[in-house]
Every structure is written in C-alpha cells, then in structure tokens.
Write a structure and sequence with these properties.
It contains 17 helices and twelve strands. It is of the alpha/beta class. The chain has a domain at 106-129 and 232-433: Rossmann fold, CATH 3.40.50.1100. The chain has a five-stranded parallel sheet, with helices on both faces. A four-stranded parallel sheet has the order 7-6-5-8, with helices on both faces. Helix 5 (133-146) crosses helix 6 (159-171). The longest helix has 15 residues, at 263-277. It starts with a strand and ends in a 12-residue tail after the last helix. The protein binds ligand F0G. Ligand F0G binds next to helix 6, helix 11 and helix 16. The site of ligand F0G has 21 residues, from helix 6, helix 11 and helix 16.
C-alpha cells in the first residue's frame, strides 16, 4: 500500500492541494495538477515488476500499465489483492501496454545513421485501440469509475477518442467525443463510431474542440479524459517504465516523442522526476520533443523563435504572458496548425507548462520536422516489419535531425516512442506510389 495520494497544483508558489477524489483538471487559479504520493516506493519493486511478466493468470500483471501499479496507486488499494484490484482498476483484460516494449530496428538505425545497438524504438501502436492513449485511458477511466462518473468526455485528433470509446464501452459508461470535423484519420473516426461513442463534430481544429469539450464537460457533468486530466499522465508514465525496465533500469541518453498536446512529454518528465527522486535511476535521460513544422508551438517558444525569448519552466515561474502573446499572434495572423500528420495538428498544447517542466528537468530539446520527413520516418519503420502512423514517424526523423545537428551524439543510447499505428490506409499507398519518395516501392503490373 502506497499511502496517501492527493492532487497538487504544479506551480510551486501556488501549490494548492485537493483530495484524490477531485475531478478538477486545474486548481482554482487555473494551473494544472499533479497526482502526488506521500510514500517513496522501494527499488525492490523492480524485482516484483519483473516477476509479474509471468502473469500467473492475473490480468493486472499482464497489463503493461497495472504491472507497475504500486507506482500509480492513486486508488490506494492493496495492490497484491487481486479482488481489490478487480473492483477498482480498469483494464481491457490486461491488454493495455501488454505488447509494448522497445525493439531494435536496423533499417531505421541505418537511415538515422546510428549504431543499431544504440537505437530502441517502442511501438505503442499495438495497444488494443492502436495507440499509446490506452496507457493513460486505463488510469483516467479508473479514476472516473472511482468518482462514479456516468459519462466521459474528450476532444481528440482521433486516437484519444478511439481509446476513450473503447474503455467506455467496456465499462458500460457513456462517452462523448469532440472532433475537429473532417480533420481526423478515417480509421480513427470509424473506431469512435464502432465503440458507440457519441461524436460531436466541431467546426474548427483540435484546439477549438478541446475548448468546447472542456466547457461542456463542466456544464453537463462530464468527466474529462484528455491529457489535462492528471490521471491520464499517471498511466502514461508506464511508457518510459517499460522502456527502462527493458534496459534493466539503465537510463538511456535520450527519450524521444512526437509532440502534440504534450501529455507524453509531461508524463515522461514526471516518471523520470519520480524515479530519480526515489533513487531508481542514477542518470536523467534527456527528452526530445519533435513537433511538425506546421504545428510548432513548443519548438517555436522553447527555441526563442518568438520575440527572441526562450520560454522556460524557470523553476516554476514560466513567462505565461509570452505564451499568451504567441497565441494572440497566431490568432491575429490567422495562423492555424497545419500538417498532414493530423494526430499532432495542435496549436495550443494544453500541457505546455508540464512539458516545459519536463524539458527543464531533463535538459531536453524541441525541434521540428516536415511532413515529407515524417512520411519517410513512418515508412522506414514499416520496412522493419512494424506499423506506425505518420505522427510517429516524427520520432525517427527527429532523431536523425538531432544527430545531424550533433545534439544527439553518435554513441548515445536513444529510445524513440512510436506513438500509434496506421489508421489512414491511403497514406502508405500514396507514399509508395510516388517513385520520388525515399523508401517507395511502387506497384508493378
Ligand atoms: N502521436 C499520436 C499518434 C497521437 O495521437 C498524439 C496525440 C501524439 C503523438 C501527441 O501526443 O499529445 O501527448 O503530445 N493525439 C491526441 C488525440 C491529441 O486526440 O488523439 P501528445
């Protein structure tokens, strides 16, 4: 038993605290919240987690999320008692995170120009709904169930809605998904329909859909499961947990993600902060966030490309006015996020402050890649026999770009997260038909 869990505002000088049953996604001053734990888990749990890989019939050991349940025990239950776990923990029969681990992919390594032994790519697309979202949705829906929510609500570029719809259907609760009309991959839209979610089409982009869904959730008693929900972040911590466990808890030099709303960046940062504080890892891997060129808010602000000021967490005193001025600038100039990788077509990353905190803690970096680069990254992963979607291709080409710039060094060990599987069937077809593309294998007749 981990002891008392509670919620705390992320801004140190605010620091408001709330009971774990609170469904607020922010404190009363409008700052995001963290799930906090009073107890410090013993590193001996590493052995317990390892042993659970032989699940002995327990879905909570099979699950790549709940296998680490002592590190996310916000339900404050006896984690060894399977009956108690069944009463509280939401799981798709142990499938979330079950198939996720890092792999070597030699063709991707050759393309990047890194030694095969130094590159690990972790496909999260083999989760039951086809993306990393299931890691965090299992935990968010667990909290929703804990507080007796009747309806979960999210905005989505597609994967969140698929995951939310799937878990809601499995738990017998309602689910409303707000999607930017016409801007999500057909396979993702069809999943939301298939799982019986109520689709709400928003005339606008993801940022507009998120705003509307947050308002409606508040006004009509919905439980928000977007990554602004701190319990989503808890489940997504298991993505780096699995990678680190696979590397025998020897921290790599880098962990690389595509960047959208920055839930992943935030959860990886929180996982690393906790592990380091508990003495489970001795070295802090650097996080690299790869934005699309067409939706580059984090990269622009972090690299000082707006008003020549590099936006930093600054020990909990970030210049939030700079962010507001950047958003005003986007609005005034009519700049809308635009990329063919619709999963990360996001202009206002809701977790930007947690993302900045993660980058500060890990001495991280942010950069951008183009649509055609992402397609190459996606395609070279395919040539290793693994599936991923275009946004995930950003990880591969982001690593390549950072190596080319000498930021990632030749001998560095790099873990890249491939966030989701292909749900837009025509993207690879069109890519391979065009002989000009680097990895194209055009059809023959
Ligand atoms: N990769 C994929 C495949 C995604 O679906 C997303 C986000 C990201 C990367 C970005 O991750 O938000 O943690 O920085 N998709 C969300 C959705 C927004 O609604 O499905 P992030």
């Amino acid at each position: 038993m981990q002891g008392d869990a509670y919620l705390k505002c992320i801004i140190p000088k605010c620091g408001l605290e709330y009971p774990i049953e609170s469904t607020n996604v922010q404190c009363e001053k409008g700052h995001l919240l963290d799930v906090k734990y009073k107890n410090k888990p013993s590193p001996e749990l590493k052995e317990v987690f390892y042993k659970r890989r032989n699940s002995e019939g327990s879905i909570f050991n099979e699950s790549g999320v709940w296998r680490f349940r002592e590190l996310l025990n916000f339900c404050q239950i006896d984690t060894e008692n399977i009956e108690e776990c069944s009463k509280y923990l939401v799981s798709l029969d142990g499938a979330e995170g079950r198939q996720s681990k890092p792999y070597h992919m030699s063709k991707a390594a050759d393309f990047i120009g890194i030694a095969n032994d130094n590159l690990w790519l972790q496909p999260e697309g083999y989760n039951p709904s086809g993306s990393f979202k299931d890691n965090g949705m299992a935990t968010a829906v667990t909290h929703a169930k804990m507080v007796g929510a009747k309806k979960i609500v999210c905005a989505s570029t597609g994967n969140t809605s698929a995951s939310a719809g799937m878990f809601a259907a499995n738990e017998g609760i309602n689910c409303d998904v707000y999607i930017p009309a016409g801007q999500i991959a057909p396979g993702k839209l069809s999943q939301a329909y298939q799982f019986g979610a109520q689709i709400v089409e928003v005339d606008g982009n993801f940022d507009d859909a998120l705003k509307q869904s947050l308002d409606d959730a508040q006004n009509y008693d919905g439980y928000t499961v977007n990554s602004v929900n701190p319990f989503r972040i808890e489940g997504q911590k298991t993505i780096p947990f699995r990678a680190l466990e696979y590397l025998n808890w020897e921290a790599p030099d880098w962990i690389v993600y595509p960047g959208g709303a920055l839930g992943n960046t935030s959860s990886c940062g929180k996982a690393l902060m906790e592990l380091y504080e508990w003495g489970w890892i001795k070295k802090i891997p650097r996080i690299a966030v790869i934005n699309s060129e067409g939706a580059s808010t984090l990269s622009d602000l972090y690299n000082g490309e707006f008003e020549n000021e590099k936006l930093r967490w600054n020990k909990g005193n970030p210049n939030t006015e700079l962010i507001s001025r950047y958003y005003d600038h986007l609005d005034n100039e009519g700049i809308r996020p635009k990329t063919k990788a619709t999963a990360i077509q996001i202009g206002r990353p809701a977790n930007i402050l947690k993302g900045l905190r993660a980058l500060e803690f890990t001495n991280g970096v942010a950069t951008t890649v183009s649509d055609s680069e992402m397609l190459d990254g996606m395609s070279v992963v395919g040539l290793n026999g693994f599936d991923c979607e275009m946004a995930s291709g950003a990880t591969v080409v982001g690593i390549k770009k950072l190596m080319g710039e000498g930021i990632i060094k030749k001998d560095d060990v790099v873990v890249g997260i491939l966030t989701g599987r292909q749900k837009d069937a025509m993207i690879p077809v069109d890519y391979h038909k065009n002989t000009e593309n680097t990895f194209a294998i055009p059809p023959r007749n």
